[in-house]
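Morning. Coffee machine broken again, so started the prediction first thing and wrote up yesterday's gels while waiting. Chain of 580 residues, entered below exactly as on the submission form.
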Amino acid sequence: MLSFNVVSRDHTIVMLKLLSRIQQHGVRYYSALPDKASTLAKFDFPSATHTIKSIDSNIEKYLNKQQIKVTLNGHVHRKSRIRPTLGFAFLRDTNGDEIQLLATPKYTEPSIFELMKKLTVEDSVSVSGFIQPKESKSGKEQQWELVVENFQILNSSNLDAAQLDKLKHNNPQDIPPQFRYLQLRTPYYQKSLRLRSEAARLIRDIFIKNHEFVEIETPLLFKSTPEGAREFLVPTRSFNKFYALPQSPQQYKQILMSSGFTRYFQVAKCFRDEDLRSDRQPEFTQIDLEMSFVNNSDQVGIVVEDVIHNVWNKVGGKLTYKVNDEGFLVEADLAEVGKSLQFSKLNYIDVLVKYGIDKPDLRSNLSFISLEDFFIAKENADFPVVEVCVLKGAFDASSGKYKLPKSFIDDHNFSSRRPYVWAIQRNDDTFGYFKKLIDANIIATTNTFDESKLQKLLNLQPGDILAVSTRAKFPYENPTPLGKFRQLAIEEFPHKWQRPIVMENGQLSVDYDRNDIVVGSWVVNFPLFNPVEESGQTSHVTEESSKPKYPVYNLKKLNPHIIHSLWQRLKIMICWSSIL
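Came back before lunch.
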């Protein structure tokens, strides 16, 4: 009911025109509704009887029997090719697998041909028919296609799907965020989310069945407490009062330990307001666990390794390896997983001295050579140790002058000092490269300098790349300049300097795909404190809650930089997880 207070004739005319427009708009709106019968028909379709994967795994069963009826539901994956006497369409089912649909006059009604001509990519469809062998090139595995007997378009896609089709097939990661639903339909993202789901299920089984943990979900709203990063605040109904989203369930799980839950875990949501990087997101999920009545770090490590080995093997389909005492890669003993530690332990200082970072990629055997007996750095007294990294056989010196990769000489890739890098083009005097640094007053020779020993130690050959830098006596930069150089070298030459792997027959081999193996190690004996270069003070290296490895009662009599903490990290390839 509409009512008007008529003030004048002009006002009455205006209001009547407005009412007319409202009525006209209403007519247009209702006339735009689709036909009732066709709309209801879209809700009447058969459920899927199979998935493409289930047919693939039993393909002989379907090909040996005549015309087993199959119904598949999914989306149109590619542009269809429909002719009067033959039609091809491409279906992607709910698991992200693809199959070709074949329409022929013998089995497909003319009305279905007409319907399939209207197909656009990403239409939601239901297809029924039977399986037949598909002609394939010699040498290829036997393939199949679905002969269409019944076909329904359940929901038509829009213009956006067609415009983004090329991007979907070539670079799905570049699909704009407003079309996330289209991006998540692509096989890569379908597989990723399903793998994540499978990993979460397996993790829960391992914690609960193998180690008697209790899964407890902690609240997401908590009192704001100072931690490492800034918090996301949630306003309340009380003036100037806020909740905080947790950076981790730290305080909750400590309460649980005091409450008699001696083994707790959860797949926890965490929130941190910090600078975005490839491995830093404002919202993320972590596997959070806590144990009480533990007097040995190996007790926690065994549980963590049980999760890591099983997830990589059963979900990721990859073997896990460790570095043995000889420096070779050996496969972890899965029979002992969950009973004893399988990954090797590396000392924090040794790792920084040898690899320049606390999470080195151990699939590469690149390491550094200390030249303390030959040189001392003069450029900065805080970094007196001269060290080198030699990339043996990095390039073919006989093919002409070699140009160093840009990443090696880009200052932006290094947080403080960029190493001095040379490509060895010919049999030059080894000392000549260092003489350039001596003349520039960057380094100086020691009293024990011996040129012949230096040449023998480095054994530089044409095709090698030499990188020279400095570090502290007890390194604390993470990474050191050479540590960053090592990372860049592995990226530039991913198939060189691979660490030998011990094969089943006991032989050594470097002929393997580094992406097919997982290498883990424990980094232990972290220092409790490190110097802060800018201020000359000392700061925590690890979590403030981590305690010293041994009782320390009088810090004034000790160098705080030599105190070790109980903190340790499990490094897997080039990532790490932390254990307190």
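The mean pLDDT is 86. Going to sketch it on the whiteboard this afternoon.
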